[in-house]
Records
---
Amino acid sequence: MKVKSSYIPYFLILPAFAYLLFFVGYPLVQALYTAFTQNGQFSLATVRKTFADPYFWDALKYTIALAGVIVPTQVGLALILALAVNRAFKGKDFTIYALTIPLTISDVAAGLIWYSMLSPSGFLNKLLLNIGLIHQPIYFFGYQYRHMEFLAIVLAELWRATSIVFVIILAGLQMISHEYLEAAEVFGADYWTRLRKIVIPLLKPSIQSALIIRTLFAMQIFGIVWILAGRDIPILAGEGFYRLTELKEYDVASIYALVIAGLSILLGALYIKFMKAEYLEVRR
Amino acid sequence: MNDETKFMLKRLAFYTFIFTVVAWIIIPIIISTLYGFALPRDYYDPKKIFPTSFTVKYVKTLLFTLGALDGIKNSVIVALITIAISFALGIPAGYAVAKFIFPGKDTIKLSIVALRMFPIPVMAIPLVILYIKLNLIDTLLGVALAHTAMALPFVVLITSSIFAGVSTELEEAGMVFGLTRLGSFFRITLPLALPGLAAAAMFTFVMSWNEVFVASILTLSHRTLPAQILSIMAGASGGAAPDYYKFAAAFIMIIPAITFIFFARKYLVTMWGITLK
């Protein structure tokens, strides 16, 4: 019941809020402290050390490049799929089920699955060899094939994470009232006009929330890259992980964490500037 | 070309497209499952696209010798603790957001959403230092606490939309007939919200089950399944384990995911507003 009440709701929210604030606030303060002090004194030594490392700039470059290739492709693909599926046809249920399977597959598992597709003795190579399309296996893995590794990561990530975009956009599509579309049809608008003038504008909130979710997650891409390419393709989260677990450099790892945070805050701010906050919510 | 041929061609193109997409999703899963049980000689034979002889040897080795079974156990424990804590904290908050009007509500909702966007590596890396101080490093509770931070905003938003869906009149009726607010919550709202809450719990489970970064950083000897698999399968230079162990690992990891989505698909999609018709 909607009741005006002075303290009860705050009292109910407080524990969750305090918990979240602690797990976001404490790490942030700790990371800033670790990154910018040495022996208790303010120091930029760690920052200089990190920026002098070519891996840092490669990681920044590759993280942005991967996001730049993957996210727009995913959104475009998911839009086409959602539009295709949002009508009655034979096998619709199964198609939607199949398209949502990757929702629950982890990035590590997706990396391993795509390794079995693309490795030198993997499915794709054997298939193409036997059809006679190629005479030598295509090599996707190994430092000297870094461009192919990049492609493999893109393929695997498209396979794994397009479904979440698909689900968000399909949910948005189903909320569009049929009356608008029927009215447009009565007035003689063809499919493309309806799509451009009605469906896409009404779908904007869904597309935007899919964009923000995917871009922010792309900044922390890790498991799939680590499985398929290791450090051949350096990425921010992977370098932070490597610095922390292999070299025990807490300070450098903290800088990586802060860079990811900075990028995410920047992107989040940009998105929020261009969209209304309520679109972020998970809707029923 | 008359209209009927045009129509048929369009239909054909549509079904070809759908078929291609479904094949694109499903074939990799089938192939990695087949390879997970293939004999290495079949796998390395360039003439054999599909393996014909099978063995459970590599899946078994992975489970019992390389510690995947312990990983599964740890993953389940972490996920259950995560569900317990994030629901204990998240349900009251979700209820408050759904059923009360109060100043600052929108700000609070927005901050919860913003906290959900907080990147995992940023949380995990500095937590190591705190966990060493608190003796939480390399414990399942430690991982679960971090996973809770990841899952909690989601639980608040989902539960609030579930509670908002439970009719207010029913609650009011309960209170008219003498139940307290708390009583009417436990006797009326909670039972009605239960299916939705179960779905949210399943989704939380999957989130925790799939998470690898936090788990890899915060544990060494008590690893969850993805962290365990990651450390066996990939070193810093990539590609540490032999191919057939990778396939076996993929198989072990996707079985729960596929089973889960098969049982939960109804809820999974309704949570995002889709009704399968």
---
Amino acid sequence: MAFDPSVNTKASGKAWSLARGYFVILSLPVLFLLLFFLWPLFTVVTRSFGVDEPLFAHFLTVFDRSSYIKVLGYTFQVAATVTVLCLLIAYPVAALIARLRGGWLQISFALILVPFWTSTVIRTYAWMVLFQRKGVINGFLLDLGLVDEPLRLMHNNIGVHIGMVHIMLPFMLLPLISAFRNIDPSFMRAAGVLGANPVRAFWHVYLPLSMPGVSAGVALVFITSLGFYITPALLGGAQNMMVAVLIEQQVSITVNWELASALATLLLLLTVALYILYDRVARRAGAGGVLE
Amino acid sequence: MMTWRTTGRVAKVAMVGFAAMVLLYLVMPTFVIVPMSFSDKLYLSFPPTEWSFRWYEAMAERVDYPQALWNSIKIGLPVALLATTFGTLAALGVVRGRFFGARPMSALVIAPLMLPQIILAIGLYPVMAKLGMAGTYPGVVIGHTVICIPLVFITVAASLKGYHPAYEYAAMTLGAGWWRTFWYVTFPMIRVGVIVGAILSFTFSFDELIIALFLTSPETRTLPRLLWEDLRQYVTPIIAAATTLVLCLSFVLFGALAVAQKRLQRDRSP
């Protein structure tokens, strides 16, 4: 770019107010988010208090009815189980992939990212195709004579868990792989040379070093699972409902916006509280907080 | 010592087998759909006995599928544009600016991605109704943009952190104004991050269901919403055919993203 002295004086005046300039730049997206993100959240919270009802009336309704408590409990239980299953499955697989090089590494990454890039509706539909009474898995099992009657794989716990683990697994694998790749393999060799057997070396060296990846993956999978809608709505049963499905039903079927808002406010508080907790823990462990 | 070595070898074989099964589990549903769509029967059997295009023909006869696809594109493109603009501005402000309140502001920009979408959906509906935008294109475009801003913010902020702001100071010292500094120095440096953010935003909008359920009408409904409504009524292979088409589109976008990211790596390591 040619040097142009004519703009020199104008620009030098602005250079001293760089911070203010960036503040102006930031104000546009922030205004947009205040209007279309914080205002909607504010609407949800105020609606949950109702208009003429006594304070916390709708929250009391939630805690009063055992069916709503059951939904909240089930949501927590599913999120916890999915998180544990993802961790148990992803840990050894990620440890293996982290040691790959070249072509095999790229193939593994592609296989992890393919489902990541397919919409959740479509993937859940695929599980419906596989799980139906006359679906692929039942047809296969009946042909082989392994079962006499089609198994019930959908509209129950099994379907929800298999479907949700499938969707959340990449979110656990990716932070784990990146954490494992940061572990220097010579640490494990050093532990071996110093007389530790592989189990001991794993327990005292590898596992502690992998904790940043574990905590990031666990937080991501657990918090995302709490708000799951598509998979439990299609693969779940009427008996076991997750809270996002209940909120949507309260709006579209019962048209009870106040109760839906009260449930959404509870979900919001819970999510924010979990993020703050994770931020504290991650900071203390020196792994960087949510914003890093 | 010997026992550990044998155990290690067995463990390694077991781990490789397990990893192969897990990767198969990850991709299997995606690849079951494609042969399904070419099946001849109403009931989904695998592998299909006879191949045919009848579900593609049936899909083409339904006017709602092409319309929903077109709606998704009409919503996704403005979302990508708006989210890229806002997300880039936010990243510039937070990463380059040093002022009081930058941290809570970056928390505000990231937050929409972290909350369950159902909360935003039931909050946006009354707001959009008040503004007269419920069920319109601008309504759902704004809803998707809110969630896509953090996607762009994250990718662009990463690009901005990848080089020293001294380049920009140098340009300004040499007399370039705001716009010239951005256009000739900053933008070429963060270009790949911006493009990746835009592709991610379009893909997100193209896939998103919950906000679309609340903010679209039957005229503006997106493809995921139409698939969803079909799935709740009856499962026919028409959905598999539509899905296969969407998959093709996703893979084109995925390829574009892979190319963009490869260029990002190349730009980073001179």
